[in-house]
Amino acid sequence: MKKNFVVTSEQGIHARPATELVMVANQFESEVMIESNDRSADMKSIMGLMSLGLYRGQKFSIVATGDDNLEAVEKLAALLQEKKLANIDE
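User: That's the sequence. What structure does it adopt?
Assistant: Structure tokens below.
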């Protein structure tokens, strides 16, 4: 399962929201990766997520593989939108 997003937060995705995203990703058995600018990182790792330096206007994708991949991506998408961090990029 893959879903595309664009960062909408003025501060980008900084440490506090990144921590929340990592906590949600860790609830799932699936491998959950985040991809941006030809780079990828494990969404279950705060250092990996922060290493991408996601800023306002940047596009990224969340890719999950495993038995609960759909639920993982949907829950992360909901959190990104609820916290006004990113919108789905159709």
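The beta strands are 2-7, 31-36, 39-42, 59-65, 86-88.
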